[in-house]
Each structure stands twice: as structure tokens, then as C-alpha cells.
Amino acid sequence: MAKGSPTVSEPTYFILASLLDGPLHGHGIIKQTLELSENRVRLPVGTLYGALDRLAAAGLIAVDREEVVDGRPRRYFQLTDQGRALVSAEALRMQQAASVVTKRILRPGSAFS
């Protein structure tokens, strides 16, 4: 996610979208991102945690809780209000951008109708 950029990267978008239903731990975010993106966004663990650190530093997500499972720490992340607003705005922006093309494709007389 570039500073000052009006859009977010596809991986960032799906990470944020994966948290819309509530807190998830890293592996849950990886699985949800893969499912939501229809297998387009595959996040290696190192990439995910780098992204989560950046998103937390930007105030878009926060640690919800931590627990220990099989002797290993597990952190759950949740969207902040700012993160929810950003992913919602990005979804609306993409929807509006897509409608420019779909309206033109579906109009009478277009090469695609």
C-alpha cells in the first residue's frame, strides 16, 4: 500500500476483506484470503506478517488477542474503524470503475451485445 495512493494492492484488499467478519489469526487470514480471491492471492507466511505489521502501523488493523497453541503464540487481528472504512471505500471504487466497462459492453449496439 503506497502512501498517498487512493487504491490498495490486491493482497492488502483481500487481507482487509478477510477480517470483515471478525478477528482471525495468520493462518486463518491466509485461508480466507485464498478463498475470497478465488485462489488468486496466495500469501506466503513471511509476506503476510510483513503486510500485517504495515497495516497495524497504518492503523488499519489491530491485535485483538493473543493465545498460545501447542506452545506457539498465536495473534488474532481485527479491523479498526479506519481499516473497515478503507476496504469499504476500495470496494465501492472498484465497483464504480467496473460499471464504466460493463455499461459500455451491455449497451445496445456495442460489439459485445
TrEMBL record:
This protein's name: PadR family transcriptional regulator
Domain of life: Bacteria
Boundaries of every Transcription regulator PadR N-terminal domain copy: 15-86
